[in-house]
Design goal:
single chain, alpha/beta, TIM Barrel, Lyase, Ornithine Decarboxylase, Chain A, domain 1, 2 domains, eight-stranded mixed beta sheet, eight-stranded parallel beta sheet, 10 helices, 24% strand
Length: 377
């Protein structure tokens, strides 16, 4: 997944220390693939996946909308050239003063999942559109989402009814099927729940118009994943099944699927050792770990492809860890990683598929290691 442009950049620039390199041409291709797969859905790029200004400017120029989690992300999207009507404040947990600031900036689309949040928006952003997030089980996702966001469909009816009565525009519902979702039927189950909310509120004269189908679109790590086209076909079939001729407006929020395969992290082997003379497994310590941007290796959920200069040699099992003085900074131990026996201290290791959720997860100088550097080409 390291494009020739990325390899050429690393070979000529020789950046010091661990760094992420993102190829904008891959991001452009991914955007076009989503546009083709779901031509009737508006694309709201999840800024949290990678907020690099170069990425945001490219997507804004292509016509993308933006899903934001904070006022800072709203300002990033505006600075990149997006207009406020292309921005959603998609975090269900917002300070009232942040809602007011977003409203002052022109944002009129807000996510909610409880009556209390609706009441804040009614006070700070009167007349705005709101959509209510519905809980999903996340089955089939490599990085399932917790119950932190969303409410059961029955409560979503109450939330949107309250929004309507407070003078807000009860616009629709949203869901998220879990990050790195590889089960094409996941959207079918979630859309069935969405439809039930539509039907119950329509009976009260409150007509919802939009379904935000969230993110979850995967990037390729060690195994193949369905294409954007396959997701598009499955989602269209599910929409047709549940909504028939009364199709709602739809939104998708790709993050990982937009930028994940566009980035590669260059790292270096700092140490290779064993814990005893007869230990079959080697410990391979890299100059980047969980606190340097690889937080998604938590519970070994995301297994990144590793490329070494000695690929093709005989391999043996390795435990892979980061460089910090923290015992939690181990990437892969339960499922050890096969790496060349000839791998040695100082070798460069490329960690592929790291364009999403790396720079944004990197700590601010934990143990004195500087945050992950990034280059966008």
């Amino acid at each position: 997944m390291a494009t020739q442009r990325i390899l050429d950049f690393l070979a000529t620039r020789r950046p010091e220390g661990p760094c992420l390199v993102v190829d904008l041409e891959v991001v452009r291709d991914n955007y076009q693939a989503f546009r083709k797969a779901l031509p009737n859905s508006r694309i709201f790029y999840a800024v949290k996946a990678n907020p690099a200004p170069e990425i945001l400017r490219l997507l804004a120029s292509l016509g993308s909308c933006f899903d934001t989690a904070s006022v800072a992300e709203i300002e990033m999207a505006l600075d990149a050239g997006a207009t406020a009507d292309r921005i959603s404040y998609g975090n269900t947990i917002k300070k009232e003063r942040d809602i007011a600031r977003a409203y002052d900036l022109g944002v009129r689309l807000f996510a909610v999942d409880c009556v209390e949040e609706v009441e804040k928006i009614a006070r700070a952003a009167p007349g705005s559109q709101v959509f209510c997030r519905v809980l999903t089980d996340g089955a089939g996702a490599e990085w399932p989402l917790s119950r932190k966001f969303g409410c059961v469909p029955e409560m979503a009816v109450d939330v949107l009814r309250r929004a309507h009565h407070l003078g807000l525009d009860a616009y629709g519902v949203s869901f998220h099927v879990g990050s790195q979702q590889t089960d094409l039927s996941a959207w079918d189950r979630a859309l069935a729940d969405a439809r039930s909310v539509f039907v119950k509120l329509a009976a009260e004269g409150i007509n919802l118009r939009m379904v935000n189908m969230g993110g979850g679109f995967p990037t390729r790590y060690l195994t193949d994943v369905p294409t954007a086209q396959a997701y598009g076909e499955a989602i269209f079939d599910a929409l047709s099944k549940h909504f028939g001729n009364h199709m709602p407006e739809t939104i998708i929020e790709p993050g990982r699927g937009m930028v994940g395969n566009a980035g590669v992290i260059k790292s270096e082997v700092v140490l290779i050792s064993r814990k005893s003379e007869n230990d079959e497994a080697r410990w391979v310590y890299l100059d980047i770990g969980k606190f340097g941007g690889l937080a998604e290796t938590m519970d070994e959920a995301i297994r990144y492809p590793l490329v070494t200069p000695r690929d093709g040699d005989e391999v043996g099992p390795c435990i892979i860890a980061g460089p910090t003085c923290d015992s939690a900074d181990v990437l892969y131990e339960k499922n050890m990683y096969p790496l060349p026996v000839s791998l040695t201290i100082g070798d460069e290791v490329l960690i592929e598929g790291t364009g999403a959720y790396t720079t944004t997860y990197a700590s601010v100088a934990f143990n004195g290691f500087e945050p992950l550097k990034a280059y966008v080409i």
